[in-house]
Specification:
Elements: H1 14-43, H2 48-84, H3 88-124, H4 131-143, H5 145-161, H6 165-187, H7 197-221, H8 237-269, H9 273-309, H10 313-340, H11 342-349, H12 354-368, H13 371-386, H14 390-415, H15 420-444, H16 446-453
Helix pairs in contact: 1-6, 1-9, 2-3, 2-4, 2-5, 2-8, 2-9, 3-4, 3-5, 4-7, 5-7, 6-7, 8-14, 9-10, 9-12, 9-13, 10-12, 10-13, 11-12, 12-15, 13-14, 13-15, 14-15
């Protein structure tokens, strides 16, 4: 083996490799979540209807994005494997194929979403005072799907080869750009026309276009580990089949999560506006845990994938075990901190309402007990994805949400008459079940047997 200096992720200390991958990914994920915060800040100056019009679109936008974004995971897995196997021609070819497929997928989704905007907003229940703004915002956002998906695939490919800092820098730049463009396109200035609510979508599309352009230039130039080419962008049925085999389960997983967000909100809203507010605060606190957990899971996918590509199965397993320990103990510690400061955190958002503070703090305290298990599940999903066994992640996520959490939330809150507290308890119980199932399945070693059977994948040619 002559790769001592070629690939630090298949050699040396695993903890160093894991942290060097995870920290920039977590940073980039946190930055990307800032888009919504910036939009909400500036739209809030237009009034509550403006915020409501955009908020109504988020679940649908997230659902559409998840259908295509899952396919980008296939790019991460395939590139990571070929990188570990030191098969640069296939790194470049599979990257070109991934960009080609994502481009086609994004164009189709953009067209469908654009012309479905009106009916979708009516179905979701947009009132007459916000229907026009909701439809326009959704239409403009749909036009940006092409740019957004192209940057997603760039990000995924770079993560697959272990180059995680470059996407983070680009995300930082575009977040700053979006913060400048948001007020410009919402309110207008000088010769630039203000578009109101739609202006926030225009600003996002422009920044997404800039990010996509930068990403494509980097990939075509080939100076950062991947070089794509137009000549390799065609329908290769073997690669297409492989991509869908890996990416379709991830798309299903993410889209069911998007649907799940809507379904849970139906149960929550039945208990009144105070509980909705408490749930909203708890959900925001949960996102502060989910974002780094997802980042650690993605880092595990890349690390496991590269070591599998190098046929270092034992090192891949060691990386997964180490990542599991970091996730479980690290997020358990974060959960303990959040448990202790639950009431001040809730009061920060709604300082005057004692009932909401009580309910929100109780939700956070109950949830925080299982943050370590949540982190463990994400790392196990990352391990299965890195091994190319994306169906396992899909089944575990579907089980967590649809078989355990939602039925349990309904049963506890209504059948057992626990009220909103029943909804709160459905979170740690479902995390417990998912964590145990995922880790137990990991320990069976079935994912390693699949890798051994699939070694022919590593030597595949164009």
């Amino acid at each position: 083996m002559t790769s001592k200096k070629k690939n630090k992720f298949t050699e040396g200390r695993i903890i160093s490799s894991l942290l060097s991958l995870a920290l920039p990914i977590i940073f980039a994920n946190i930055l990307q979540s800032a888009y919504q915060l910036i939009d909400t800040f500036w739209l809030g100056r237009l009034g509550a209807d403006a915020v409501a019009a955009v908020s109504l679109s988020f679940p649908l936008l997230f659902l559409v994005l998840s259908l295509g974004a899952g396919l980008t995971l296939a790019g991460t897995v395939m590139v990571a494997r070929y990188k570990g196997a030191e098969n640069q021609p296939m790194v470049d070819f599979s990257s070109s194929q991934s960009v080609f497929l994502i481009l086609l997928t994004s164009v189709i989704l953009a067209i469908i979403s654009y012309f479905s905007a009106g009916p979708l907003m009516n179905i979701i229940g947009a009132g007459p005072d916000i229907i026009d703004d909701s439809v326009l915002y959704f239409k403009v956002s749909s036009l940006g799907f092409v740019f957004l998906f192209l940057f997603f695939i760039f990000q995924s490919l770079m993560r697959g080869i272990g180059n995680v800092m470059l996407p983070a820098y680009i995300v930082l730049f575009t977040v700053i750009l979006n913060a400048v463009l948001d007020p410009l396109f919402i309110y207008g200035y000088g010769p630039v026309q203000g578009y109101g609510v739609a202006g926030a979508a225009v600003a996002s599309v422009v920044t997404q276009a800039v990010a996509a352009a930068i990403g494509l230039i980097i990939l075509f130039r080939g100076r950062h580990g991947i070089k794509i080419s137009l000549a390799s962008m065609y329908f290769n049925m073997m690669n297409l089949k492989r991509t869908f085999k890996l990416g379709l389960p991830a798309s299903i997983e993410q889209s069911t999560r998007a649907l799940g967000m809507t379904f849970m909100m139906v149960i929550v809203t039945s208990f009144g506006s105070d509980i909705v507010a408490a749930y909203g605060i708890g959900a925001r606190m949960l996102s502060f845990i989910v974002i780094p957990a997802l980042g650690l899971g993605i880092a595990t996918t890349s690390l496991v994938g590269q070591n599998i590509g190098a046929l270092k199965i034992k090192r891949a397993e060691k990386a997964a075990n180490l990542s599991a320990k970091v996730a479980f103990f690290g997020f358990t510690g974060l959960g303990l901190i959040m448990f202790l400061v639950a009431e001040p955190l809730t009061a920060f958002f709604i300082p005057e309402d004692t009932q909401v503070i009580h309910d929100g703090a109780l939700f956070i305290k109950i949830m925080s007990l299982s943050f370590g298990l949540l982190g463990l599940q994400q790392v196990m999903n990352g391990t299965f994805n890195g091994a190319g066994f994306t169906k396992a992640s899909m089944f575990i996520s579907i089980m967590t949400l649809w078989i355990v959490r939602f039925p349990l939330a309904y049963l506890l809150s209504y059948t057992f008459e626990m009220g909103p507290e029943g909804i709160w308890w459905s979170f740690p119980i479902s995390n417990l079940v998912a964590g145990i199932v995922a880790f137990s399945y990991f320990k069976t070693g079935y994912w390693k047997k699949r890798v051994i059977r699939d070694r022919s994948f590593l030597t595949a040619q164009e």
